[in-house]
Write a structure and sequence with these properties.
This protein is α+β, with helices and mostly antiparallel strands and 361 residues long. It is built from 13 helices and 13 strands. The protein has helices at 4-13, 24-39, 95-102, 148-156, 203-211, 218-223, 235-242, 254-259, 267-292, 295-305, 312-317, 323-332, 348-356, and strands at 107-109, 115-123, 126-133, 136-144, 159-167, 170-177, 183-189, 192-198, 213-215, 229-230, 265-266, 339-340, 346-347. Strand 7 (183-189) and strand 8 (192-198) form a beta hairpin.
Length: 361
């Protein structure tokens, strides 16, 4: 069975960019998850498990804060881009960015038409970048080297083909996920485990791209970052900009939201984090108010969330992914006695934590 409402919730919960949920490497797991959601009575439904971005097609899931990835959003406002902090030569980058860059494998794709389009949640020791050319996209992830054996073992379990090839002077293990055109290469480099992935390719084309990867200096790597990247020192200013037009719940911890977590984030993901934090707080209050019989507080939360379709940050994000649509659908359930509309109604109380990536109340 297929239910557009369930597909939307899956798209927002799963950290895969819009339009890639039905890629062959993910189709079987997505189908199983759809069926599990549809066959579970709403009153018994637990928060839907969410799939790690880099897992293979096996139905192995984990629960985590939502990480909705999209193509690079156009950066607007003061201090949004990663940018240089000075105008001299050489460029002056923020000290935190330089520290992260120096501890990262700093790999770029040097092939015709390909550019770095996304860099998200990277810090010392781990991170993700994406390269794009038109509608094509490949992804690179790095994590500490100590997890390399487990990484290879996990990917092999879902593969029907394996070989090796040279990448950046190292030997990479290359696998293809079963019954798909998705290829992954894994290798060790400078204390990191690297994983390069293309979900729709051939072995020949994938190998050619691997041969186009090259190392970069700190300045070159940071200079290649897309404008959608939000650097840590600009975090508070960007959060304030994104909160424009959003009603803030009583007692909401703005200072904690502005402080951030020290990660370099993609603007789309930061938008989801900001809008989601506010929405989660309003819905938490709505759920608590209904349980306590506080009709005034429940009505106030409903009225606040009724404005969500006008929140500028969600309108900006809507062209890039499904998170705004899911948030709006959950908000629409508040005046509807807490029932999320669709082919098989789901309780808002059971759906919002996982649908928005809220911390458990």
């Amino acid at each position: 069975m297929t239910d557009p409402r369930i597909d939307a919730l899956l798209s927002a919960s799963d950290p895969i960019r819009a339009g890639r949920l039905d890629a062959p490497a993910f189709a079987s797991a997505a189908a199983e998850l759809r069926e599990a959601i549809a066959s579970t009575p709403p009153e018994l439904a637990a928060p839907a498990p969410r799939r790690p971005r880099w897992a293979g097609p096996r139905p192995t899931f984990r629960t985590a804060a939502v990480a909705v990835l999209g193509a690079a959003a156009i950066a607007v406002g003061v201090g949004v881009g990663i940018g240089r902090l000075g105008d001299g030569a050489p460029p002056a980058w923020g000290a935190e960015l330089v520290r992260v860059a120096e501890a990262s494998p700093r790999v770029l794709l040097d092939a015709d038409g390909w550019t770095l389009t996304r860099a998200d949640e990277f810090r010392v020791g781990e991170g993700e970048t994406s390269f794009g050319r038109g509608e094509d996209r490949v992804d690179l992830r790095w994590t500490p080297e100590r997890g390399f054996r487990e990484l290879v073992r996990d990917r092999r379990a879902s593969a029907d083909f394996e070989t090796t090839t040279a990448v950046l002077g190292r030997t990479a293990v290359v696998i293809r996920y079963t019954d798909s055109n998705a290829y992954v290469a894994m290798w060790r480099q400078d204390g990191s485990s690297l994983e390069f992935r293309d979900d729709d390719t051939t072995l020949e084309a994938f190998t050619a791209l691997l041969g186009s990867l090259r190392g970069a200096s700190v300045d070159e790597w940071l200079g290649a970052m897309p404008e959608s990247v939000v650097r840590p020192d600009a975090y508070a200013a960007v959060v304030d900009e994104m909160l424009t037009g959003i009603p803030i719940p009583p007692g909401f911890d703005l200072a904690a939201l502005r402080a951030g977590d020290g990660l370099v984030r993609d603007r789309y993901q930061l938008g989801a984090r900001v809008a989601g934090a506010v929405a989660c707080a309003w819905i938490d209050g709505w759920v608590a108010a209904r349980k306590a019989g506080d009709t005034a507080a429940a009505a106030a939360a409903t009225e606040a969330m009724a404005t969500a379709r006008g929140w500028p940050v969600l309108r900006e994000m809507n062209a890039e992914g499904d998170y705004p649509e899911v948030l709006w659908e959950l908000a629409s359930a508040m005046p509807n006695n807490g029932t999320v509309p669709g082919g098989r109604p789901i309780s808002l109380e059971n759906a919002y934590v996982d649908g928005l990536g809220c911390p458990l109340p």
